[in-house]
Structures are given as C-alpha cells and as structure tokens.
C-alpha cells in the first residue's frame, strides 16, 4: 500500500486530494508542517508527498515553492480540488453558542465574510483544519467550532453547523504529488507527459525574461503560469517559477536545452501529466 | 496637513511607512481593512492611502492587487521598509509569563520560528499588530503579548520583551502610496517618473506573453516584477500584474500604445518614482 505524507490530520484537504489522486487505498502519514513531509521523505525513499502549491483565492504558496527548490523530491503529478469549508462543532451546538472559531490561517481567510458576520466570536489560528476539529472532539469543548472539511467533521464526530461558508465559491486549490525520482514513473497518471514546472534566476537586465519566453514559444511551449519571486538576501531581485504545457515531449526537452544558456540556476521541479478536470470535494 | 489612511492603528507598519514617505507632519486615518481605505477615499478626494503590496517573505498580497484593479485610486509613489518585529506586553511581564500571543496573521507567520520555540503559548489572530498592542494596554491584561513594531510598543506604553523576533532578518515590505488622479503630481517624489505598474489579461495561447515582453524590451523597458494571477470565476486562466522601470517616459508611453492591441483589459495602475533605498524602521 502506498504511503502518502500530508500536512494535517485525517480529513484535511490534503487527505482528500491524496485519496482522489490515487483512487485506491493508501496509508496517510500526517505531518504538522510541509517541511516535515520532506524530512520524513529523506529517511524513506518510498514515501510520497502531497502539497498545495496555489489557490485561486490566495495565489501561490511561496514557502512551498522554496521547499520544492531546496529539496530533491520531484513533482510526479497534480490534482485540482474545489475547496468547500464547513463550520463544525460538538453535536447539539448551534451557531449562537459559538464564541470561538479555530482553523488554519488560509481557511480563516477564505471564510472572512462569514467570520465578519459574527463579530462577537474570537478567531484562533491552528496548524491544520482537521486537527482543529480533532481537538474539539478530544477536549469535548462546547462553544468552540472548527472551520474544516465535511470529511474532517465526519472523521471526528462533529456536527456541521453551516456548510459552504467560503466567501468565494470558486475556490480551487492545486496540489502537487511529490516523489523521489525513481518512484516518479510509477506515480505519474500516464507516460504522456504534457506539463513541467521550472525555477530559474534572471539578471535584472532589459529583455532577459522576454528572450527566454520567446525561445519557449519558438518551440511551441505554452506558459500556463509565471511568478517572479523575491530572492531572500538579494532584495528586489527575482527568481521565476513557471509552469509549461506541451504536446511534444521531445520538443519540450529541446526547449529546455535552448534556454539553458540564458538563465541561471535552472532546476526542473518535475515533468508530469496535467490535471484537466477540477474535482469537487 | 495631508490626511493619510492606513490599515491598522497608530504605530502600525503602515503608519511608519506613511511618516517615512512624507517626512512631514501628517494626519493618520486608521482603517480596519484595506478595503476601508478605498471606501473612505470615495467620499474624500484629498484622502491619501498607504497599502502594502509585496513582501520578500510572503510575496505579493493578492487581494490588494485586486483592490488596485477594481478601484480608481492611482499609485503615486512607493516606499520600501525593513520590517522588524518585537514581542511586547505590559511592563514587568517576562517571557515565561506569556501564555498568549496576539498579532496579524502576516506578522505571526514572519515570526514562526520564534513562536515555535514557545510550544505552551496560544496564538491568536488580530486584524492589526498595533491594535493588538493597544488592546493589551486598554485591557491591562497580563500574560498576553503582542507581536508589533517598536513604535507601537511605545505608543501604547508596552514593554519590549524581545526584539528582532522575525525569522528572516531580510524582511522587507513594499508599500504603495495611493491618491486620486488629480492629487498624484503633488504626491510624487519628483516629476522624473521612472516606474509604472500595469495589469492585463492574456489568452492562453502559445507565445502571448512572450510577444508582449518582446515589444516592451524593444522599447528599452525593464521588467522588475511579474505575477500571473488566477482570474476568480475563470479558474486556471491568468491575468498579469507587471512592474516596469524605464529612463525615458515618452518611450514608456509609446510602449504601452504598442502592447495595447496584444493584451486585454489593460489598466495602468500608476506612474511614479521608484524607491531605490530601503529604510530600516
């Protein structure tokens, strides 16, 4: 059985993404932080990881981009999931009983309109949506509610007080499936690779990015995402994360060779199969 | 006296940025949210705003990009500030007395290593670093500390327990100075405009971004930042925010005309003077 490390506990959105991607029974290895996934994987070459990388509301998760750059695991696949949050508490609790809401900062932000409609309620951060739900169950604490998935409410025997409380219903997260290089072929959805993610550094000179993108377009490579990121320690200089899609893998490999002399510190973060459908949780 | 709306209370980092930019006595108008700045400005054509737009640790503040796109205020200037956080509480409190830390989610994230070193402490979100400090003063509550600026600790008569608690010391934030179009010339640092910010939409076709950047480079325009953002409601399509610098303003204006037929929904968010120095708070 495949072992998949996720940030968060059972019922976390990463858990849902992992089950959707593999569609078979897997063993979930809960981690408190994204960094812990990579640390655990250093000691276990068969460990697979799942990590959110961007969200239609919050944009790119920048620290996770750094983790990809600094570690050896490769992107083996991606999964796009619609995120819908619930407010859940001990059975029998009603909305007017709730005086404190606990969840992950990202989930709290995504439900900001709902939270603003409850001015008397205290908002408390937690590392994880699902673990927040578990603590309410374990502590048997009335008056506290978690913002979490419907699955987490089920797993920890909480009652859903409200569902669909996210401000924007078009709230999608893109998750990456990570694995050691030798494991990647087994984990890819198919051998028809049509997407890749890269990171590189460019000098701050006129046209440096334009040259790179021109070369990619000459090779019929499509750019689906670009993000310039500050380089910590060299303020206001930038590195670039880009996602490419293509129909011809050989052409893509040639294009990478062609841009190599134009960029610094190029790293291919993964070559995988694009997820063309968005799954509702 | 100029009236400057900021997110947060007196002593907030936005307050520091405003005072640094204007270098003269100003009237600060505290707002609870960034949106409130724009709402207040709709009723007062002389109101100036200050808004963080990117940070070397967290990257771009995406919701603030949206506010710029959807509202009429223009970028009249920018200010880059090094952010250094303190842990502050009622006078006489020591680190071991603190059982709860309150601050803005961004500040909490920036001090994550310090917070992780205090496993017994509860972490509570607040809308603002400075208002968190004020509440401790007003409530006269021992055992609670705020993560806030040194200025906020002073303003609200708190004692600094630890300073420089940010995980990465190279923590810089870029603030934008916003004003109604008629006010912009008065607020710009000088008439030597050398920077502009744009937003536009591109079709997902091969080479569409490459063409735009090529045209800009033919006009000797330098790209200092690019961010592709998801368009909410049209998932996994992207709009682009870019910052440009240039030495010839006429050339820059010509380049904008030249890219106009290649992009959709182009909006110039502002034309201003680049801040070339970073000020420590």
Description:
- The structure is a homodimer of 281-residue chains.
- The first copy, chain A, is α/β, with parallel strands linked by helices and 281 residues long.
- Chain A has 3 domains: 2-83 and 171-189, D-Maltodextrin-Binding Protein, domain 2 (3-Layer(aba) Sandwich), CATH 3.40.190; 86-163, 3-Layer(aba) Sandwich (D-Maltodextrin-Binding Protein, domain 2), CATH 3.40.190; 195-272, 2-Layer Sandwich (Alpha-Beta Plaits).
- Chain A is built from 10 helices and 16 strands.
- In chain A, strands 1, 2, 3, 4, 5, 11 and 16 form a 7-stranded mixed β-sheet that branches. In chain A, strands 8-7-9-6-10 form a 5-stranded mixed β-sheet.
- Chain A is elongated and about 65 Å long.
- The mean pLDDT of chain A is 90.
Describe this structure in a few short sentences:
Two copies of one chain form a homodimer. Chain A has three domains: 2-83 and 171-189, Periplasmic binding protein-like II (D-Maltodextrin-Binding Protein, domain 2); 86-163, D-Maltodextrin-Binding Protein, domain 2; 195-272, ACT domain (Alpha-Beta Plaits, 2-Layer Sandwich), CATH 3.30.70.
């Amino acid at each position: 059985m495949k072992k998949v490390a996720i940030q968060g506990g059972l019922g976390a959105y990463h858990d849902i993404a992992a089950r959707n991607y593999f569609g078979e029974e897997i063993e979930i290895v809960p981690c408190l932080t994204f960094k812990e996934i990579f640390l655990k994987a250093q000691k276990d070459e068969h460990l697979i990881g799942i990590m959110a990388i961007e969200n239609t509301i919050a944009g790119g998760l920048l620290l996770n981009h750094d983790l990809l750059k600094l570690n050896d695991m490769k992107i083996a696949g991606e999964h796009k999931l619609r995120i819908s949050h619930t407010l859940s508490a001990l059975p029998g609790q009603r909305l007017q009983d709730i005086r404190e809401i606990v969840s992950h900062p990202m989930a709290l932000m995504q439900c900001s309109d709902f939270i603003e409609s409850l001015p008397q309620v205290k908002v408390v951060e937690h590392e994880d949506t699902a673990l927040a739900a578990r603590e309410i169950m374990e502590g048997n604490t009335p008056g506290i509610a978690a913002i979490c998935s419907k699955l987490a409410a089920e797993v920890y025997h909480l009652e859903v007080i409200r569902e669909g409380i996210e401000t924007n219903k078009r709230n999608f997260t893109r998750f990456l499936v990570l694995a050691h290089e030798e494991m990647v072929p087994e984990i890819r959805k198919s051998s028809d690779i049509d997407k890749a993610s890269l990171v590189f550094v460019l000098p701050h000179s006129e046209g440096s990015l334009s040259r790179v993108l021109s070369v990619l377009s000459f090779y019929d490579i499509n750019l689906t995402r670009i993000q310039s990121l500050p380089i910590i320690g060299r303020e206001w200089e930038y590195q670039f994360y880009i996602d490419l899609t293509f129909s011809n893998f050989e052409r893509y490999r040639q294009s990478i060779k062609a841009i190599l002399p134009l960029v610094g510190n190029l790293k291919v973060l993964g070559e995988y199969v694009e997820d063309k459908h968005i799954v509702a949780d």
